[in-house]
UniProtKB/TrEMBL annotation:
Mg(2+) binds at residues 7, 390. Its main location: cytoplasm. The lineage of its organism: Bacteria, Bacillati, Cyanobacteriota, Cyanophyceae, Oscillatoriophycideae. The record marks 186, 247 as: Transition state stabilizer. One of its GO terms (molecular function) is magnesium ion binding. The gene is ackA. Belongs to the acetokinase family. Gene3D superfamilies: 3.30.420.40. The keyword Repressor does not apply. This is Acetate kinase. Its cofactor is Mg(2+); Mn(2+). GO terms for cellular component: cytoplasm.
Length: 403
């Protein structure tokens, strides 16, 4: 079965093609036979399409005013040139889309119909940077592959069984009824990491209690009890919770009221401040990148040191708050750019949790071994570094839906 995955963001678009032979879904993720990514941010004059297949790499410039054509270009590279892996697009059996926001109604992967599209469109107010890009992708596929089933895999779905006590905000209940609630995000990644941790532990996920830490440009934690996400740090939007690359995470909401009353901030300015100019970027004043922070600390930069200490402070206090919803911790899981590659972040995040019986092996940690336990032999809590495979998780959902 050939499964195309489209993972569209506001400024990037990643795609992969998986070829799954036979009738059994592989336990471990196979490599995609073709991968493509478009980056719209590197230059104002053009977008860059990078394609990898058949052991070759190709780079193509795209017109930034023709984003929808960009997707057609991506699809062309599947059937033409050095990166050709299929003869015609009709060989694709199913297309899976990562959709950031599925609202309250979608608690699992869903076949895309006109109603589902209408709901993704309705939710644009809640995910203005992402849901329009998802619709662009869905419609581009409809134009060239009208009869091929398309599946939406929602970032919010894994958190949809969260108890009301986690989901409802302590504001007048009517707002909950109007959709202002904790939805949680990065669900596909948290679910994949939890399932992979269960595989590594050789135990059913339903028997485990885990905390998964997705630490990329966006950062979130999930508390997973018996296979269900019972709490997560992101909320109504991906702005809540941990300190992130450019997002502030949770701050006293009265700061917003103050800025509006006394500094004349409007909604757009607050949005820009909290989503784009805060977090690591806001503190260093230069970069949102954890690698930059670690390099600058070596050079004695005090702001970089502060950014690191704050990142760890918020990470640890949030791990603490996730503990409130589980009764035991079988494993702490680190994933995504920072979680997978930054040994100092993992070491500092674990320091102080020895009272839980959690002991990190600093030498193992330093090697950032993927899909491996980096706790000491006698640690009562496993600490996994897991390479998140969101695209494969989406492909697996599609495969399951087609069987
Ligand atoms: P996104 O959330 O956009 O998918 P990623 O998961 O790729 O982002 O994570 C990006 C973050 O990972 C950046 O802060 C980057 O600095 C960090 N990162 C990537 N590699 C390393 C590394 N070797 N050491 C520390 N941080 C890293």
């Amino acid at each position: 079965m050939k499964i195309l995955v489209l993972n569209a963001g506001s400024s990037s678009q990643k795609s992969s093609l998986y070829n799954i032979e036979g009738n059994i879904l592989p336990q471990q993720h196979p490599e995609p036979i073709w991968e493509a990514s478009i980056d719209w941010t590197a230059s104002n004059d053009f977008g860059t399409l990078k394609v990898k297949a058949n052991n070759t790499k190709q780079e193509i410039k795209l017109d930034p005013n023709q984003r929808v054509e960009g997707i057609s270009k991506v699809l062309e590279t599947l059937t033409q040139g050095e990166t050709q892996v299929i003869d015609q697009l009709s060989e694709i059996d199913v297309v899976g889309h990562r959709v950031v926001h599925g609202g309250s109604d979608y608690c699992e992967a869903t076949r895309i119909t006109s109603e589902v599209k209408a709901e993704i469109e309705r939710l644009i107010t809640l995910a203005p940077n992402h849901n329009p890009a998802h619709l662009e992708g869905i419609e581009a596929i409809e134009r060239v592959l009208a009869d091929v089933p398309q599946v939406a895999v929602f970032d919010t779905a894994f958190h949809s069984k969260m108890p009301r006590s986690s989901a409802v905000y302590p504001i007048p209940y009517e707002w909950f009824e109007q959709g202002i609630r904790r939805y949680g995000f990065h669900g596909t990644s948290h679910k994949y990491c939890a399932q992979r941790a269960a595989q590594l532990l050789d135990k059913p996920l339903e028997s485990l209690q885990l905390i998964t830490c997705h630490l990329g440009n966006g950062c979130s934690l999930a508390a997973i009890r018996d296979g269900i996400s019972v709490d997560t740090t992101m909320g109504f939007t991906p702005l809540e919770g941990l300190m992130m690359g450019t997002r502030s995470g949770s701050i006293d909401p009265a700061i917003l009221i103050y800025l509006m009353r006394n500094q004349g901030f409007n909604a757009e300015q607050l949005d820009q401040l909290l989503n784009k100019e805060s977090g690591i970027k806001g503190i260093t004043g230069k970069s949102s990148d954890m690698r930059y922070v670690l390099e600058q600390i070596e050079k004695g930069d005090d702001r970089a040191k502060l950014a690191f200490e704050m990142f760890i402070h918020h990470l640890k206090t949030s791990i603490g708050s996730m503990l409130g919803n589980i009764t035991r911790l079988d494993a702490l899981v680190f994933s995504a750019g920072i979680g997978e590659h930054s040994a100092p972040v993992r070491e500092a995040a674990c320091a102080g949790f020895e009272f839980l019986g959690l002991k990190i092996d600093v030498e193992k940690d330093a090697k950032s071994p993927i899909d491996t336990d980096i706790a000491t032999e006698d640690s009562q809590v496993k600490v996994f570094v897991i390479h998140t495979e969101e695209d494969w998780a989406i492909a697996s959902e599609c495969w399951q839906m087609m069987h």
